[in-house]
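User: Okay, second chain of the day. Same drill as before: sequence in, structure tokens out.
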Amino acid sequence: MSSQKEDRKPEPELPLREIPGDDGVPFLGPIKDRLDYFYNQGRDNFFISRILKHQSTVFRTNMPPGPLIASNPNVVVLLDAKSFPVLLDTSKVEKRDVFTGTYMSSTAFTGGYRICSYLDPSEPDHAALKYWFLSQLSARKDRVIPLFRNHLSDHFLKLEDQLFKNGEADFNKLNDQMSFNFIFELFCDRPPTDTTLRTKGPIFVSLWLLPQLSPQITLGLPKFLNFVEDFLLHTVPFPALLVKPFYNKLYNVFWDSATSALDEAERLGIPRDEACHNLVFLVCFNAYGGMKLLFPALLKWVGIAGQYLHRQLRNEIRTAVKEAGGEVTLSALEKMTLTKSVVYEALRIEPPVPFQYGKAKRDMIVHSHDAAFEIKEGEMLFGYQTIAERDPKIFENPNEFVGDRFVGEGEKLLEYVWWSNGPETKSPTVEDKQCAGKDLVVLMNRILLVEFFLRYDTFIVDVGISLLGPKVTFKTLIENASYID
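Assistant: Same drill. Structure tokens below.
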């Protein structure tokens, strides 16, 4: 009772302010906001324009998709480093069925199960499933560095070959295949090419993901087709039946291949069928889906930063590896403070999953830097990391990519880096919704930079936009003349 009273007390120095903004006219208001979000303003400007209009980083609006997919699109938006963390506190917000926002895809996409990502930590199945995920990651930790390096080696050879033949190389397409091959082999103990998937895994996953994510995306079609696209993608949910054949192929291969992981799930009391559907989601949606965005984003920002940062990175990386006897080890990686900082900075400035949702468990007070706001029980809270993690009251030059931002004293700022659905200073547990693979993601990004700058001195890329994130095209690659594979 005392903590609830404490929650409701505004800080003395902050005035209690009514939350500005509104949800508009029922049905029509959400549609107008959806059109602004996707077509009239674009995602970032949608939020920035409302911050300026309301002179507040906390306000009311509607989030897509709205009618007819989401029954209630009304949200309270939190866009600063002080208010945003309430979304990570599962004692204050409920995370039940909010993984994709104000709507939830049919369980027909996942074998009839509500997958762990959709469960609130208070639900009994959540702890068992997340414990299983964490135990599987722990059991495979020693394989990550050698296995990922092998896949990266093959990936870079294909990148060089494509660049030599075509004068440019599509990083994203090659990255999709490499990422799927690695994450599948890590969890299933054999490469997908040894299964009936062959090289079609990324295609099957994309076909399965697209109808689940279509309410959140735009295809970038010509302007005169906006209303057609909006009706097709954002108005009526796609039936899972359309992609069931592709999902079944994925599921059957996981069932046959991930025997050790599924055996362990059964020992923990998780039905094998439920575990397999959760594993497909973990590997294909959470892990592979994240890698599709993470690695292009990292190389985008490092590429844009230019040769000065490239020189700093290659000097740090090559020195640490040389001191480790030519081996890439965890101890060598720990000495690469700039490399680690660059990874954190990429995750800060372009988080792979920028949206967080949570439903208020009780009446409470949420604070921004400037005011206090009363939230009612049951209200949906929403945060957009891409703006919240660029809070100028926390980060100097927040819209700039600063490679050494988290070196030395800068490490203290990691508490404001939330890409994993939790602060970078904490580790995931069964009681929270922080990404189970948080440490694996950071490690993979660091290994990617290490392998890259062992092989290459510098590079130039063109940066564009793909369906879900940045598109990176390599234009030049300057090799390290002394590199030996």
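Residues 1-8 have pLDDT under 50 and may be disordered.

User: Thanks, on to the next one.
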